[in-house]
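To: structure subgroup
Subject: Chain for Friday's discussion

All,

I'm putting the inputs and outputs inline so they're searchable in the archive.
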Amino acid sequence: LPEMDLDEVLARHPDVALVDELAHTNAPGSRNEKRWQDVEELLEAGIDVISTVNIQHIESLNDVVEQITGVPQRETVPDTVLRRASQVEVVD
């Protein structure tokens, strides 16, 4: 997955940014460790964001997912990030 150029998106300041894989860990040397942190910067700059996240990457569901699948998730998104969303759509 290519890294998002956060500085370029901030400089362009679109009304809306599409950002895939909210739980993604950015490459070493990136400004933020996680993509959800990049999204927080976009939101703070007044840019609306449409993003994706797999349910197993939601922090509060991590233990449940591990119990069901037997696989712990390394990449998670804090619930506080999801609570900022004005709309969440679940797709199966």
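Points worth raising on Friday:
The mean pLDDT is 95.
The helical segments are 6-12, 35-44, 62-69, 79-83.

D.
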